[in-house]
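Technical annex B. To support the medicinal chemistry partners, we prepared a structural model of the target in complex with protoporphyrin IX containing FE, based solely on the information shown next.
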Amino acid sequence: MYDPRVTTPDGMTAEQAINRIEAAGHPRPQDRRLHARGAVYEAKFVPSGRIAHLTSAAHLTTETSAVVRFSNGSPQYDADDRARGIRGMAVKFLDGEGNGVHDLVAANFRVFPSSTPEGFVELVEALSATGEAGLKEKLAGGGKLAGFLFQHKESHAGIKAFVSRRAPASFATTRYDGLHAFHFTGAEGTRTAFRYRLVPQLGEADLDADTTKLERGFLLPDLDRRLEGGPVSFTLVVQLGEPGDPTHDPSIAWPEHRPLLPAGEIRIERLSPESADWERQVFDPTRITHGVELSDDTVLAFRPLAYSVSAERRLS
Ligand code: HEM
């Protein structure tokens, strides 16, 4: 029987998913199987007070320390930051002892390209099948990616929106979405569906067409340079669902006119002196605490299984 904590609807285990991702992407043994190159920064969360009535989560309603990992989504450690692709921002809220209490794991797409983990693994395979070619060329060239799109109608909107943009100009000018639904639980027993996004206070900016002056791995040095001039901030924005809005499928966006509330500011201050140690840890979107609950999204339920297998392999 299908058990979302062990297998996907089609019976794929996390081990099998990671085997397929490894076969497609050839990561180095010591790296994350996706999002291989990244670095971890020290940050502060400064709450706005606007969600205090929705959640009893203390870390979201008082000033809290955090660490933030920015990454290129590629399995290749030497991935080209000038190419269109996935960029990640992962936040770990810390308790007084420096332990993680709640992780946000978000990426620069607005809707997940698949409603199942299998679909996502197939997409990783299709994207790697055409090697270094750009996404637009991969789509135009037919082959595995075109075959994937033929099978996965739910992916069209997400992939089309993604392909229409150039690569991000900076980690600091990219919007990252969490995509899955969660629930806030409040002191009075209230329960409110929400999704989160991390919106750059500098505004969004993509690269110009001419990238010849940029280094292949320019994104982390760019962020370090910006931080020499002061903090780089993001607004944690929550979108509130209404009764009937689907919570089980990250490939279905909620209407954009659903209320958007600024929960607070994530102020990134400096590269963590312990970045290399934090790199070893897992940022897990199901790590939550009192005041936040998981939804019925089976892609979300599968992620910690896959991330644990990736972590076991890269740390062994
Ligand atoms: C079934 C679906 C998914 C699979 C199988 C998958 C797989 C993975 C794997 C294997 C890693 C490396 C984990 C590690 O070694 O610590 C990873 C990291 C990551 N994934 Fe996913 N992923 C999925 C869905 C998503 C979604 C929906 C998002 C965005 C909302 C996302 C964003 C990220 C980010 C930002 C990281 C880097 C986290 C970090 O900095 O440690 N992934 N993913």
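Notes passed to the chemistry partners:
The chain has a mean pLDDT of 93.
Residues 17, 32-35, 38, 69, 71, 88, 90, 105-107, 112, 117, 120, 178-179, 250, 282-283, 299, 302-303, 306-307, 310-311, 314 surround protoporphyrin IX containing FE (CB under 6 Å).
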